[in-house]
């Protein structure tokens, strides 16, 4: 359930997002755009960014859910369903922002000096905010860290690296990634509360 404290956090996140938009996004994008393509940092992030694709989480979690249900291992089935639904909700939710905002991708600024929003534009050039790969990576990482707290730090670091890769390869602005990280965290947290509240069955 969304609480008042969550609204305060949302207000703070929104404020930081605006500050990034005004004062950091273009400078950060330009820095990584001008980085040598053969730089090992860029190669590393260009490689791991693929881990932000939702099919890496949707397909295995669905298969595991069906497998555990068939074997009546219901707790594990619920965990798999939680990962699946986290990705579904995050994937749908991100488009509730992408479509109305219609934010221009960094490429338009870096190559054509165009920066800002093209409201309600759904062309791939105008769906930068928030980052879809980021919300997938962060929501999945947070969800997995809640299920497997013993491994939470490596999991969260991996998710953060995938999210940051979107900035390094100039697919998204810093604010796109920052806000998507917040959304992904909230989706994972709220769905965890829903699925694993006391007495909740699948």
From TrEMBL:
The keyword Transmembrane applies. SUPFAM superfamilies: Acid phosphatase/Vanadium-dependent haloperoxidase. InterPro entries: PAP2/HPO (IPR000326), PAP2/HPO_sf (IPR036938). The keyword Transmembrane helix applies. Signal peptide: none annotated. Keywords: Membrane, Transmembrane, Transmembrane helix. It comes from the Bacteria. The chain crosses the membrane at residues 7-24, 44-68, 80-101, 126-148, 155-173, 179-196. Residues 80-192 form the Phosphatidic acid phosphatase type 2/haloperoxidase domain. PANTHER family: AT30094P, SPHINGOSINE-1-PHOSPHATE PHOSPHOHYDROLASE. This is Phosphatase PAP2 family protein.
């Amino acid at each position: 359930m969304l609480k008042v404290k969550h609204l305060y956090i949302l207000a703070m996140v929104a404020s930081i997002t605006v500050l990034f938009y005004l004062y950091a996004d273009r400078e950060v994008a330009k820095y990584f755009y001008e980085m040598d393509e053969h730089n090992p940092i860029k190669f590393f992030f260009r490689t791991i960014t693929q881990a932000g694709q939702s099919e890496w989480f949707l397909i295995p979690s669905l298969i595991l859910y069906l497998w555990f249900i068939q074997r009546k291992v219901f707790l594990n089935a619920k965990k798999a369903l939680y990962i699946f639904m986290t990705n579904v909700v995050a994937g749908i939710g991100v488009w509730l922002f992408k479509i109305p905002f219609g934010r221009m991708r960094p490429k338009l600024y870096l190559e054509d000096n165009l920066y800002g929003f093209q409201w309600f534009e759904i062309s791939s050039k105008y769906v930068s905010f928030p980052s879809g790969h980021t919300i997938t990576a962060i929501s999945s990482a947070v969800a997995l860290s809640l299920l497997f707290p013993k491994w939470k730090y490596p999991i969260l670091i991996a998710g953060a690296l995938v999210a940051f890769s979107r900035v390094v390869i100039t697919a998204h602005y810093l604010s796109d990634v920052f806000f998507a990280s917040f959304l992904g965290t909230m989706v994972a947290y709220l769905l965890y509360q829903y699925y694993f509240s006391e007495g909740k069955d699948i």
